[in-house]
Amino acid sequence: MKNDIQTYNNSQLHEDRLICDVLATTIDTELVEAVKKIWHSHPVWFLEENPIVGYSKEKKGIRLMFWSGADFEEDSLNVLGKKFKDASIYYNSVSEVQHSDLTRWLKKSRDIQWDYKNIVKRKGQLERLK
Question: Does the residue 126 lie in any domain?
């Protein structure tokens, strides 16, 4: 795990740190080609400079967000907005993280992508990449 992401995870309280470590390890294993970094203060993985998946600490728990998750057709992922294609799930215990769901979503995150990298250039309009 990259040092800055491990530092982020270590800054969390015990249960949240366990959740973050499981998420980071699984994402690293499933998206080996992804570039990972701290972006807007939380860990995010990118494919070809396009944000794919990330997580952050919020009041409701650890939020795992997929930038193109609205099109995954997964009932467990909540679509928050109408303008963008993101979807999320919140975790409050490491036991809530279902490895089979997470690996399936990560596969879909590689196969279903909207172009967030060029959203500013396109004045807020998203285009489907895959």
Answer: no
